Amino acid sequence: MYEIKVYGEFSSAHKLKNYKGKCESLHGHNWKVEVVVCGEFLDRIGLLIDFNILKNKLNIVLSYLDHKNLNLIPFFKEKNPSSENIAFFIYKKMEQLLKNYPVKISKVTVWENEKQCASYYE
Fold it and tell me: CATH number of the domain that 19 lies in?
């Protein structure tokens, strides 16, 4: 099995619903995102998937989130815009964008800051 990963970043604001503490107020983060994909086979030139393709797909997904109030994005109307749910959102969007490529998403990790992160995988 082969595995590659790419990183991306976005800035956004959110507030956690039904939370008691500082995070119940609107605040922002400069998020860092890691997407890991895996697959069994390399293409004819020895690549699992071109890093540029993977990075471009991630940038498409992050454009939905960048410089937005996450609470106003339809997906987060029903779900809390927690790091966990943001990782899930990115995973599912990436899964759709990569469905025609011979890779599977292993994991998406989202960092609120350099000391805290949440991941989603299936």
Answer: 3.30.479.10
